[in-house]
Amino acid sequence: MEKYRPVIGLEIHAELNTQTKMFCDSANDANETRPNTNVCPICLAHPGTLPVINIEAVRKTVKTGLALGSRVNEYSWFERKNYFYPDLPKGYQISQYEKPFCEGGILKLSGGQEIRIKRIHLEEDTGRLIHKPEARNPKSEIRKSLVDFNRAGVPLMELVTEPDIKTGAEAKEFGEELQLLFRYLDVSGADMEKGQLRIEANISLMEIAALGTKVEIKNLNSFRAAERAIDYEIKRQAEVLESGGKVAQETRGWDENKAETFSQRAKEESHDYRYFPEPDLPPVRLDQDQIDYIKSELPELPAARRDRFVREYGITEKDSEVFTVERALGDYFEKVASELADWLESQGPIDKNSRQKLVKLSANYLITELQKLLAESKTGLADLKISAEDFAELVVLIHQNKISSSAAQTILAEMFKTGIDPSQVLESKGLEQLSDADELKKSAEEVIAANPQAAADYKKGKVESLKFLVGQLMRATKGRANPQVGEDILRELLK
């Protein structure tokens, strides 16, 4: 393996979330389950019909390119890509080849690797083939195929990378980061289970200075599948070369169950598609003012958000990653942080350390406790009954040692269920933390008296016995005891 260097490029197809299809006014609805519902004479390629360019799809493609630092071509056009397949009603696909909307650009990975973008172009999607067993005899090997044209004509943005990727893990990270970018830009839902995002990988092995034969793996339906398929194909090609064979230029598929690729057909070259300018569509000209306007609509992008969260709030890179991937949770976190800053300001001059402690505490409870409650209830943040102000109040109560961590969990669960503010829950359930030394001393004496063996073991040097006694004190006070104060009192009593 060491004598071969993997050369990997990706083709990422993303269905754009426009209201209508690419060249007609049929609905673009990925959730439609009734076959051949969102169709019309244009996307079904009836004779005499003429396509019309969906300008919103063009804007979303350009927006993606600008976010990746691509060069936007002011003059572009569509072409016919000729091939026959049952799910392609025209017998050709309207795509781009010679002059795509965007060229160049970079997407940086977490390790600093820069994956270059070759081009981003716009085309129409095909229909969907549904393969079924023969109706009269389900056990028969004879199968039939049905075609659903709901997807035919949906705007499909294709992003092609340069062959800068070296491993399956890099391909997986690139795909995940690109998916996140699409969602931040609101250009695509990028849901792989719905077919809104599809990956194809081109893999070859370079020996010394000679490029190897390129093999394409089509229709990878998850980032994990892409990673596994690429790693398998690298191994397979190396074994072919080591045995003295030649790698065939072909298109292969991925068998998830067998965890291996398989041959599908010989790999086409671009000239096989007989590209020529689409005669039914005019060229597209974008002036600089239009490009600048689209650029002005760019939101804060994932990489910038990660860096800002770490820099501005002092949270860990790991927590920042969670708040970036879970965008709505990150937005909620910022609202909570703002409420905490307001509370601190009301207490006098803002202490930077106190602010950081409060913010980190809120991040911890959002990521662990709140996410757990959301998962258990199978709901999302859109259904959350807890206001950012009330969540901030809960964090302040914890910070002030007015409630224990176990009490905080109880209060949060009640807030999640009812939407009641934390002070009301605290009062109604009597969960305020006990920090009064005199009150706790009495309970501690009772705990020592009830557990003489543990007390004796601690005096003999068994430190873990003190933890046991602290636990008994927490139980005796129904979780209300301040554990640190309780531990100090027990230690003093056991001298």
Notes on the structure:
By secondary structure, the chain is α+β, with helices and mostly antiparallel strands. It folds into 3 domains: 4-296, no CATH class; 302-429, no CATH class; 437-493, Orthogonal Bundle (Arc Repressor Mutant, subunit A), CATH 1.10.10.410. It has 15 helices and 17 strands. It is elongated, with a radius of gyration of 30 Å.
Give short descriptive properties of this protein.
495 residues; Arc Repressor Mutant, subunit A; 3 domains; ten-stranded mixed sheet; three-stranded antiparallel sheet; 42% helix; 19% strand; elongated
Low-pLDDT ranges? none
User: How many strand elements?
Assistant: 17
Strand content: 15-25%
Arithmetic mean of pLDDT: 90
The N- to C-terminal Cα distance equals: 66 Å
Radius of gyration: 30 Å
| Form type | elongated
Helix content: 40-55%
Number of H- or I-type helical stretches? 15
Main beta sheet strand tally, sense and closure? 10 strands, mixed
**Number of domain modules:** 3
Structural class: alpha+beta
